[in-house]
Write a structure and sequence with these properties.
mainly alpha; Rossmann fold; 45% helix; globular
């Protein structure tokens, strides 16, 4: 089950190394073309081409927050067994244009799959097929019971 899931957090961990290496993560069977397709799907192809084989710093030094999130989306896109995507505030701390790009990449990745998103972003929430609102009062009431 875990092999079919992807986690896209607010601040994905980026390892020191190339962008392609951060997408493939040493998974067997992932080809260069798979990585290229995943980078393009995540709208990160131009950034990857500009970096070439130059390494990123540990923690993503060299990438913006939006680029790091798109790298996490590319990682998920490179998983041939992907069925479930869990995303935690994928547009938090991003400007409106970058948030829109990340949203589009995430929705493209989610086609034919299950996407569960936790967000405070009303624009992202409006793009979901189904939304469940959890108010602070409800959470506190349930926790007290």
């Amino acid at each position: 089950l875990r092999a079919s899931m992807a986690w896209i957090g607010q601040r994905p961990h980026i390892f020191a190394g190339t962008i392609a290496g951060n997408v493939a993560l040493g998974r067997p069977g992932i080809l260069r073309d798979d990585v290229t397709d995943a980078l393009d799907a995540a709208r990160l192809g131009k950034v990857a081409a500009a970096y070439g084989n130059r390494p990123l710093g540990e923690g993503g030094i060299g990438l913006s927050g939006g680029e790091a999130l798109r790298l996490a989306i590319a990682r998920a896109a490179c998983n041939p067994h992907l069925r479930i995507i869990l995303a935690d505030e994928p547009t938090a701390h991003l400007d409106a244009a970058t948030a829109a790009e990340v949203t589009e990449s995430l929705l493209l990745l989610a086609r034919g799959r299950t996407l569960i998103v936790a967000t405070h972003d009303p624009l992202l929430a409006d793009r979901m097929h189904r939304a469940m609102r959890i108010d602070a009062d409800i959470v506190m009431r349930e926790a007290a019971e």
